[in-house]
Amino acid sequence: MKKISLNALVALFVILIQSTIISRIDISNLKPDITVILIVFLGFNVGFNHGMILSFLSGYLMDLLSGSPSGFFSLIKTAGFLQSYLIRRKVVTGGSLFFFIVVGLISLLEGIESIILIILLGIDRSIVYQIWENLISYASLNVISAVFLQTIIQRFRKPSLQEGV
Fold first, then answer.
1. Is 30 helix (H, G, I), strand (E, B) or coil?
2. Which pTM was predicted?
C-alpha cells in the first residue's frame, strides 16, 4: 500500500510539474512531455493493475488540467503504459539505453495515436499536420528529457547495499 501511495504521489507531482513549469518551456513550438517518462517507468517497474490505474488517472488529470476532451489523455496514457509494459515483458534486455529507446518509441506511438483520435473524434484537424511534422522532434526531446531526469535522480539517489557504499 505504501508503494502504491508513493507512486500515486510521484505521478501527481509529475503532472503538476508538467502542467505548470514544463508548459512554459517552448523549444521551437515543442514542449517535453515528462508524463511519457513516468508512464514508461511504470511499465517497467510496477504490476499491470497498479500501472493501468495510475496511467489512467494520470491521463484523466491531464484531461482536467488541459481542457482537452474527456478521455483523450486518459486513453493515450493508458495505451502508452500498456505498450511499455508489453515491450518490457517481451524483451529481456534492460538498462538505461533500452529505457531511453522505449521512451522515444512510446512518444512516437502517442503522437500517432493522438492523430488517429483527433481524426476519429472530429477535433480541430488543423493540428494533425503540426503533430505529424514535429513527431520525431517531440520524441527526441522526450528522450533528452529522460536522460536529464535520470542524471538528476541518480545524483540524489542513495546507493543500495548491492551497489556498495
1. strand
2. 0.81
